[in-house]
């Protein structure tokens, strides 16, 4: 049997050493800020998003950015074939409990305080947990 160059032998990744030592990654331009992100998550399993008010959060000292789904209109982010049509945050409807509806970055470490200033108005929608309950529940227009 022929001797293989790679199969069955340990091979060091060409990018492994720089990633493991923290030397890989993008470099920030001089003067560019960096701050951790916090995500505001939905308390509802299924709901319409009626309004998201981020005005108070964006005025908090140290806040670098506040984002919602409207900041990503039509920009899918999925990397797998089954997620290529998904957007980062919902715009009109929450699809599961804990889905991120807004995000905030605050360089002073007070991102949680900024999240508390974001108000979201929801209209709760019925939750279907099993196919059987869906079969017994008719929605208008069906």
Outline of this structure?
The chain contains 4 helices and 6 strands; from the N terminus they run αββαβββαβα.
Could you explain the architecture of this structure?
With 142 residues, the chain is α+β, with helices and mostly antiparallel strands. The protein is 15% helix and 23% strand. It is built from four helices and six strands, in the order αββαβββαβα. The chain has helices spanning 16-20, 55-58, 111-116, 131-136, and strands spanning 37-41, 47-53, 63-68, 93-94, 100-106, 119-124. It has a three-stranded antiparallel β-sheet. 15% of the residues are buried.
Quaternary organization: single chain
**H/E element order:** HEEHEEEHEH
Approximate helicity band: 10-25%
Specify the number of helices.
4
- In whole angstroms, the N-to-C terminal distance is 66 Å
Compute the CA-based radius of gyration.
22 Å
Descriptors:
single chain; 142 residues; alpha+beta; three-stranded antiparallel β-sheet; 4 helices
């Amino acid at each position: 049997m022929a001797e293989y160059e790679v199969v069955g032998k340990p091979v060091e990744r060409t990018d492994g050493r720089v990633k493991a030592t923290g030397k890989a990654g993008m470099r920030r331009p001089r003067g560019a800020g960096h701050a951790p992100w916090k995500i505001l998550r939905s308390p509802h399993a299924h709901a319409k998003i009626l309004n998201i008010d981020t005005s108070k959060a964006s005025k908090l000292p140290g806040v670098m950015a506040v984002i919602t789904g409207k900041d990503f209109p039509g920009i899918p982010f999925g990397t797998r074939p089954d997620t290529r049509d998904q957007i980062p945050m919902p715009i009109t409807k929450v699809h599961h409990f804990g889905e991120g509806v807004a995000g905030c970055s605050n360089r002073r470490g007070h991102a949680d305080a900024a999240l508390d200033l974001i108000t979201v108005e929801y209209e709760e929608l019925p939750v279907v947990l099993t196919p059987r309950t869906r079969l017994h529940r008719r929605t208008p227009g069906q």
